[in-house]
Amino acid sequence: MPTTASATPRPGPRPSTSRREIVQCAIRMLDRDGAEALTFRAVARELDVAVGALGRYFRNLADLEDEVAAALLSGMRPLDDSSAAGLREQLLRFGLDWLEIMRKHPYLATILGPASAEVVARHVAQCVKVMVAAGIEFEQAMAIYSVVANLAYAWGVQGARQSKPGLQPVLAQVFSEQLGGLAPQIAKLAAAPGTAIYRRWLKLCIDGLLPLQQAPRKRR
Questions:
Q1: DSSP secondary structure string for all residues of 100-125
Q2: Name one Pfam family in it (predicted).
Q3: Euclidean distance between CA atoms 183 and 158, whole angstroms
Q4: What is the pTM of this model?
Q5: Any idea what the CATH number is for the domain that residue 28 is in?
């Protein structure tokens, strides 16, 4: 009896993936398609895996979004008391890092959660620790960090709103809460080309906030 050749089986999804691969895929999709397009099913389709493969690492979509935010925020370099760069230059670098993250990934403001909050808390603690060691009072160190971070955040969000009008409905409320009546002035500033204007303004703010001299505290 002749043997009937079996049909070639259709390739199925890959059996598994990794946590890092899922997060990187979600970042690409968010950058490309926006937050509204991100679902477990869409990520699984992009990675060519079963939806259940994502459930091994993330409880739900909010859990994945929080991990994405944590990964992006990890790109902010903290202050380092062993760095050859001075405190002013490091604060400026931090502000520009934060600004660049917000301009590249403006949806970040809408996906923060416990994991990303922990990343921010560690960054704040390290930066404040370095400033206090340089002789700055704790309250002033916290104020300096807050001003630099919030200015960079606000400028980044505003820049994203101007370059991507479709994001305005998502970010308008966050932006208005941060800036209030200063929105027109910041909008004018954000319209300037490149990051040179941001660098100059951040530098002026940092120079105004930092004491002219920081005498390192003597260790007991």
A1: HHHHH-GGGGGS--HHHHHHHHHHHH
A2: TetR_N
A3: 9
A4: 0.73
A5: 1.10.10.60
